[in-house]
Amino acid sequence: MLELLDSCDSRRFRASKMQINPSFYTSSFMAVAAVATASPSSLIYTRPSSRSGGRIPGSARRTTALVMAAGNGGGRTMPHVLTVAGSDSGAGAGIQADIKACGALGAYCSSVITAVTAQNTVGVQGVHPVPEAFVAEQLRSVLSDMAVDVVKTGMLPSVGIIKVLCRSLQEFPVKALVVDPVMVSTSGDMLAGPSTLSGYRDELFAMADIVTPNLKEASALLGGMSLRTVSDMCSAAKSIHNLGPRNVLVKGGHLPGSSEATDVFFDGENYHVIRGSHVNTRNTHGTGCTLASCIAAELAKGSPMLQAVQRAKTFVESALDYSKDILIGNGPQGPLDHLFDLNTHAHTAGARSFDAKDLFLYAVTDSGMNRKWGRSIVDAVKASIEGGATIVQLRDKEAETRDFIEAANACLEICRSNGVPLLINDRVDVALACDADGVHVGQSDMPARVARSILGPQKIIGVSCKTAAQAAQAWADGADYIGCGGVFPTTTKANNLTVGLDGLKAVCLASKVPVVAIGGISAANAGSVLEISVPSLKGVAVVSALFDRECIGTEARRLKSILMDTSSHAKLSV
Ligand SMILES: Nc1ncnc2c1ncn2[C@@H]1O[C@H](COP(=O)(O)OP(=O)(O)O)[C@@H](O)[C@H]1O
Ligand SMILES: Cc1ncc(COP(=O)(O)O)c(N)n1
User: Fold this and answer.
1) Cβ(521) – ligand 2 distance below 6 Å
2) Is 286 an active-site residue?
3) Strands, E, within 446-555: which ranges?
4) Fewer CB within 10 Å: C terminus or N terminus of the chain?
5) Is 229 an active-site residue?
6) d(CA 96, CA 93)
7) Domain 80-344 is of which CATH architecture?
8) What whole-number distance in Å separates Cα of residue 144 and Cα of residue 544?
9) How far is the CA of 517 from the centre of ligand 2 (A)?
10) Residue 39 in 3-state DSSP?
11) Ligand 1 centroid – CA 551 distance (Å)
12) Per-residue pLDDT, 284
């Protein structure tokens, strides 16, 4: 019983972070409650209905899975995206792109195939839709067995298939639905007939958390409206929003005469013009599928919607840039290399998985502050992640080693289940003992070079630096990032020299590794820090602005939104 309620709580924790589709949680909670009050054996031995072809019917199957998972002590779950889309034999778009994109972002991707296409870099040579009943059967197979977080749709070749999908989603609610209304391929070939427009408008959009049409698709959905400018894209986003989805992203990859790749995001209240650099390449086949899959993967990982969209956009831009010279096929539209990150490091055996974006909102704990507010380190870390912290560092200069390891293990569990790295301040032994993601060392702690030789190539190492020379040394010693500060005066660290915004800027300009700013940073000045606008500055680290506050979650949310606003307005590369 306790385990069941625990798992329910952690799901609700993620739900509140995503702020989408609460019905999923209601139904999961009810399923858990039903299991908790029923005899487990009566559920495990539910007789399969003949209509379901010998399988256990959906809802009972789901509750059975919960019982079994709880009975097994609960395994490690993964963020899970189900893509419902067409197969592209050339593997640049469709199901194949979706699986690669989700994999690259750390999400598991199951697939329901709606059509098989014969396709390559020249165009689409043939389309073979899968019968509706078999699409329904695939949906039931996946949704009745696996805890899918997010469903992402691609090519839905007929209204019948759209209706089948809607019925499945009503039977098996998920946390979020991402709809990419695929109609025409980059090569100009039709992938879904005009009759699907009514299916999207009348059935699927009302269930969607986000819809991601390109310019042609947005125009078709709006009866042929002409879309030539960003302002047209905003009007289109609003009109499509009126059709029912919670959010709309109109993609401007094909905006005529633009030197930027500009998309418009509309959440029903605010417009966000998301600008990216236009990559000059023939390899743009599958960008739309990739973008929607990345949004789905980020949502499954717990990101809020706007952040998911921004991360997806950055991923597509990086993939395009990395793949711009790749030669696959002889036609005009080549594919992307979704696994560019893996392939960039493929030559470095055991490459570590540090992502500089994780430095965005860096929470550094303080044992004294937690004592003062009467909360445990675990509760403090949990609240900071709930509020949006992207990396956590445990800093405790007083704890007994045994207590420190115990606390680190408990925090690691929370961090891992939320995809947030956990670093240990100074104590390389504690990091090794609990297999944390890495350490952060100061100038008088163990030298980074020694820490690297002890921890090996895969762990993350950060070093505190105040000068360009220290930053150069940290890089030479194998550091992954540096923390630069104190930027502003602070009471957290005695006798800490303040470098100011100018000192921070000088270090950022000199550093060959990503930088996080630290020292006296709070909601009042975080924006001014990011505004120094040096590409190596990836985020801010905060101590008292989170942990010396009554409500850590609220403060983290406030800081995160300030950072996101500043970075999107100033078009910073954080
Ligand atoms: N050449 C490019 N350089 C940079 N970003 C691009 C380029 N082409 C498309 N994008 C981006 O890729 C994403 C998919 O857009 P788009 O190509 O318009 O969709 P689709 O593949 O559905 O036609 C968008 O975020 C868009 O801005
Ligand atoms: C099976 C399938 N699904 C989607 C697309 C759209 O991708 P793109 O617009 O890049 O051609 C495609 N070409 N094939």
Assistant:
1) no
2) yes
3) 460-465, 481-485, 515-518, 537-542
4) N
5) no
6) 6
7) 3-Layer(aba) Sandwich (3.40)
8) 46
9) 42
10) coil
11) 40
12) 94
What kind of architecture, by CATH, is found in domain 356-569? Alpha-Beta Barrel (3.20)
ipTM over cut 0.90: yes
Whether residue 363 contacts residue 559, with contact meaning beta carbons closer than 8 Å, is answered with no
Phi, then psi, of 557 in degrees rounded to 5? -60, -45
Starting at the edge strand that comes first in sequence, how are the strands of the sheet with 260-266 ordered? Answer: 124-129, 108-119, 80-88, 150-153, 176-179, 210-211, 247-250, 260-266, 271-277
| C-alpha to C-alpha distance for 153 and 151, rounded to whole angstroms | 7
* pLDDT for 35: 35
Q: Is 152 in the pocket of ligand 2 (CB under 6 A)?
A: no
- Residue of 191, 215, 284, 287 to mutate, ligand 2, most atoms within 8 A of C-beta: 191
Q: What's the angle, vertex CA 567, arms to CA 561 and CA 571, rounded to 5?
A: 150
For this structure, is 262 an active site residue? no
Above 50 in pLDDT, residue 27?
Answer: no
Per-residue pLDDT averaged across 411-424, rounded?
94
Taking the C-alpha atoms of residue 234 and residue 533, their distance in angstroms, rounded to an integer, is: 27
Q: Name the residue type at position 172.
A: F
pLDDT band at 353; cut points 50, 70, 90: low
Task: Identify the bridge partners of residue 111 per DSSP, sorted by sequence position.
Answer: 83
The amino acid at residue 531 is E
Q: Structure tokens of 547?
A: 């942990």
Q: Is the distance from the beta carbon of residue 291 to the nearest atom of ligand 1 less than 6 Å?
A: yes
Q: Tell whether ligand 2 has an atom less than 6 A from the beta carbon of residue 88.
A: yes
Helices (H), 117-195: 132-145, 159-171
Q: Of 154, 288, 486, 553, which is the active-site residue?
A: 288
Q: Is 160 in the pocket of ligand 1 (CB under 6 A)?
A: no
Q: Which atom of ligand 1 is nearest to the CA of 312?
A: 25
Residue 84 near residue 78 (C-beta atoms within 8 A): no
Q: Domain spans of the chain?
A: 2-71, 80-344, 356-569
Q: How far away, in angstroms, is 214 Cα from ligand 1 center?
A: 8
**42 vs 299, higher pLDDT:** 299
Q: Chain-wide mean pLDDT for the chain? A: 85
Residue 55: the pLDDT is 29
By C-alpha distance, which of 137, 142, 90, 138 is closest to 116?
Answer: 90
Q: What is the pLDDT, as a whole number, of residue 343?
A: 66
Identify whether 287 is a catalytic site residue.
yes
